Protein 1
Amino acid sequence: MRPGDFYELSRYLALRLEEAIQGGAGESLIPVFLAHPVDIPKAESGQGPRAALYLHRIIPSSTCREAGVRVQPAADPALPGRVRRSALWLELRFVFMIIEATSQEELGAIASAVEFLHSNALLSVEDMEACLAKELSIELGELPLELVDDAGLWQELGFSRHHLGVSFKVTLPAVARPGEEVERVVEREISLEQVLEKERK
């Protein structure tokens, strides 16, 4: 994946959420901004409901973690193999909030957002590319999406009192480091400690 894929994934989610919440908030059309909930722009009229989708945390995935190093043997036993580091799997944590809305608008939009997120537990990369009209460098066909509990997040975001929001995560692999050649060991002992020490250097 490329660094820009984080932004493209966020943009896709914002577009799909904006599409999903229309109608759930009554007559109001609610735009979705990719921004911190405190910083989203004012409506043209000065007031009006808006939504914020904010990527607030990127952490290593504990559920998709792989072994750190794998040895990939060469097709020809006489040739050196390669040491390959496994891909780093990341969890992108998002929060979705409605700002300056009536209770009906807020709860209707939040309910529609939860329904959309629950119904799309696997995000289609093909659908993402079609929606954004561009090719992404994500190697998987689908990305896992899961609703999560982020208690106290409203305080981290700087709100002075509780603010309703929906938290979810999308898991995807980052690019693994290129492989490195390793010499073939024939009829001699090798110390695992020495190999690990050499790898650290």
Protein 2
Amino acid sequence: MESLNVVIAALVTVLYLIVALKLLLSFFHKITQPLNTASGILLSGVLIGFGINLNDFSEIAVSSFFYYAKSNNLLLGIGFWFVFAFLAFIFSYALFRFSFQMINWATPENEKAELGKNNVVLGIIHGISYIILCFVLSESMTILANTLISYPTYPN
């Protein structure tokens, strides 16, 4: 069972990163193409944040996988792996878009224009802000997501 979990985790992680990178690159290419240093720094920070969120969500994915596997419902356990990865992805992207708005509120500059002008400081500030948001909010979101799992009560 442990080796199957590792295979699923690897598959989910690779798919998650591919989709995240494609989505984020399409977003950043609307700002500047090819990517400049400022956009590259921000993209790197955002990918780190996406990874933090997937890591936190994968903890409950693993727990649910083993719970349902031991309950002879392996497919449901695998399904929850993908559900939690999807929730991590949605949370990561929504948090990324929120962080863009937050930086626009906090700074007088138009962030997209400044990133297009290669404002490295703004890229660093936004990247670090996004990572901090991920560290602070991700675990709370995983606890909330864990309420999706239906743990039946078995008689003694």
